[in-house]
């Protein structure tokens, strides 16, 4: 039997408690021994909760209990959660977390700490909710030189963009509906401005290319400026507007990580990822291309990923699983504005003017022009055209 | 440094050699030590091959070399490959294989043998080519009670069905084109009759539900009887014909594994899996639904999966990874003919006759009728209608 604890009894933490309890039998079979939930840490009281007996307000109960081997961190943020996780790793306890902010900003440091204390630090739930990505990238695809990881990484913004296309809704209306459905927060800035996707790209980039990318090294553009004209221009070319987080190797061997709204053609599997779902494309020199699709958020899907990590930790209690990456290498990063990509330019200029400035193009609806040849964003911004929008096309 | 060997220098074996060589640096980084290819076993000579120095005709060279820790079995079939793999496991060597026939017919036995000798027996490449499935099912989704695994598991038949839809080609014409493109074998029976998909369902079922399903416990129907009328009936309902391999838990808690052509609606991610690609949907009580997409065959994608397994074996040289399942449990299997499913029935009977026999239905093109309520295949076959085709609908 292995005893475990949960930090934080919010949405994800209560999902982890529920999965550990409801699926106890199958977990014992998969893990090879019973996984018993001993503590749940929270500052609040939960009278009448079936987990009342496990509740504690004292972190030291968990930290100092030698029976607790694996801890799920579901507090969120990078202040108190970070302090607790550092103490747990240093005390020789294995940690699984859903906390993308903490991993994106302190992943390298925490992996080093885990290594120094011969324990596991896992974070599958931090990217793509329940979708398996961490182990596929670290292990299944280990035989590949990864060339690109690109995904629809934020369900809220994907829901808003799907509503704008399907119902012709304006951005503000679609956002209000997402809030009414409980998909978007009261303060939706982290989703809408792309910060949530940015953190996930940082983690995927580190897994794919072996060194940390801090959020400020990942230029990020959200979807607040997306209009019905963008959606119409994409549709007239058989494409959809999607907020993509991307990290890729450039022709010069540098890593380019960024978040921006893209036009995605129907030939891509990402075109078919709608509503609150996430999808991630991984490209490598042996696999070619694979795509992973599933719920990017939600109580039980996220808990599914946390519990999968806990099982892997149980399997590797004494011999930790190899998982680490180097610290940031800013000189190995490329500027996405200098990356040649296919682009749609929206401008009040005529086709002739666009072609004079940027070469052959095809006119779309909504003042859009699909450039025939890959171009850099810098060249487009410096073209002198009166720009309404500049959208890369995913290929 | 870890020394490894490859059995069989055919398509997959030469792909593994290529990946091990070309991606040596990234592999050393991921595995934590250099992986060096010491032997390739084949009966043939390969004069001028860059791997000539590694070639041996003598299996004993590999079996008796204590330096060789991990072996990739790429011979195929369940005769000589089976004999070699048993000897290797018994000698304490870790084995990774792409051999679906061997795993589907002897997986339980080989996993037991691996366990007894404290080594790993991995077979990611046996299902879905390069698509990660084995570890997601065994580990990432370990917190789930899996309810269903359904996939497009054979690229050749999916290519044929895509051609029939896109170009209005007859089955024979599409098959000939698949052969000309090198996707289908001269003798395409294993693909066309569904045997290849059947073997893969057996493996997925064992991973999902914990006991072996031998191919004769998985009723299998191929695509040779699919006509243009089937394709038209599906299209008129916004669906596509896809050969699906499925294993699922019935309402009674039994496991039902089968292979059959299905009508797949556009709302399913599998609808968008076209050509030679594979896609696998996994459903569980925490994750909801996830889908994995990628190349289901091919030299380098398959090699990618074999090499991923070899890296995992290197990580677990002394402490094997937990992976096993029980032997067959025929009394726990349900007959797919008794499984209530949505169905399309193709018959020369009128709508009134169909509704009199099977309840409310909707007329489609190609003499097709979409039944409103889930029905068993047995009930349809016993309805007395003159049946042209009976196709379950994937939901």
Automatic annotation (TrEMBL), chains A, B:
Database matches in SUPFAM superfamilies: Glyceraldehyde-3-phosphate dehydrogenase-like, C-terminal domain (SSF55347), NAD(P)-binding Rossmann-fold domains (SSF51735)
Protein name: Homoserine dehydrogenase
Residues that bind L-homoserine: 185
Record's keyword annotation contains NADP: yes
Keywords per UniProt: Amino-acid biosynthesis, Methionine biosynthesis, NADP, Oxidoreductase, Sodium, Threonine biosynthesis
Pathway: Amino-acid biosynthesis; L-methionine biosynthesis via de novo pathway; L-homoserine from L-aspartate: step 3/3; Amino-acid biosynthesis; L-threonine biosynthesis; L-threonine from L-aspartate: step 3/5
Catalytic activity: L-homoserine + NADP(+) = L-aspartate 4-semialdehyde + NADPH + H(+)
Active site per UniProt: 200 (proton donor)
Family: Belongs to the homoserine dehydrogenase family.
Pfam families per UniProt: Homoserine_dh, NAD_binding_3
Gene Ontology terms for molecular function: homoserine dehydrogenase activity; NADP binding
Domain Aspartate/homoserine dehydrogenase NAD-binding: 8-124
EC numbers for this chain: 1.1.1.3
Domain Homoserine dehydrogenase catalytic, first and last residues per copy: 132-311
Binding site for NADP(+): 7-14
Residues that hold NADPH according to the record: 100
GO BP: methionine biosynthetic process; threonine biosynthetic process
PANTHER family: HOMOSERINE DEHYDROGENASE (PTHR43331:SF1)
UniProt organism field: Candidatus Avoscillospira avicola
UniProt-listed NCBIfam families: PRK06349.1
């Amino acid at each position: 039997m292995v005893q475990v604890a949960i930090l934080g009894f919010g949405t994800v933490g209560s999902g982890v408690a529920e999965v550990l309890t409801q699926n106890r039998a199958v977990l014992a079979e998969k893990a090879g021994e019973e996984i018993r939930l001993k503590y749940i840490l929270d500052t609040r009281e939960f009278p009448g909760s079936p987990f009342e007996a496990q509740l504690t307000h004292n972190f030291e109960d968990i930290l100092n209990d030698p029976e607790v081997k694996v801890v799920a961190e579901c507090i969120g943020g990078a202040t108190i959660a970070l302090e607790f996780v550092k103490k747990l790793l240093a005390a020789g306890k294995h940690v699984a977390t859903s906390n993308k902010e903490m991993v994106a900003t302190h992943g390298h440091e925490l992996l080093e700490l885990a290594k120094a204390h011969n324990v596991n630090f896992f974070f599958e739930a931090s990217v793509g909710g329940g979708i398996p990505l961490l182990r596929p990238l670290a292990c299944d695809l280990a035989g590949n030189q990864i060339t690109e990881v690109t995904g629809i990484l934020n369900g809220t913004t994907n829901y808003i963009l799907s509503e704008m296309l399907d119902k012709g809704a304006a951005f503000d209306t679609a956002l209000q509906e997402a809030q009414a459905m409980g998909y978007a927060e009261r303060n939706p800035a982290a989703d809408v401005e792309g910060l949530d996707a940015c953190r996930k790209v940082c983690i995927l980039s580190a897994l794919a290319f072996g060194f940390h990318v801090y959020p400020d090294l990942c230029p990020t553009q959200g979807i607040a400026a997306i209009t019905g004209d963008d959606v119409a221009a994409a549709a007239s070319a058989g494409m959809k507007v999607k907020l993509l987080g991307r990290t890729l190797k450039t022709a010069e061997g540098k890593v380019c990580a960024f978040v921006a709204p893209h036009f995605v053609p129907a030939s891509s599997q990402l075109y078919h990822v709608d509503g609150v779902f996430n999808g991630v494309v991984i490209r490598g020199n042996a696999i070619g291309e694979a795509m992973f699709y599933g719920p990017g958020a939600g109580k039980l899907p996220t808990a599914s990923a946390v519990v999968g990590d806990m099982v892997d930790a149980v399997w590797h209690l004494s011999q930790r699983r190899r998982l680490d990456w180097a610290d940031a290498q800013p000189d190995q990063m490329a500027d996405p504005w200098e990356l040649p990509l296919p682009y749609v330019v929206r401008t009040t200029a005529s086709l002739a003017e666009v072609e004079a400035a940027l070469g052959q193009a095809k006119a779309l609806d909504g003042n859009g022009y699909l450039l025939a040849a890959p171009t850099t964003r810098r060249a487009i911004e410096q073209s002198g055209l009166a720009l309404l929008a500049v959208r890369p096309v995913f290929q």
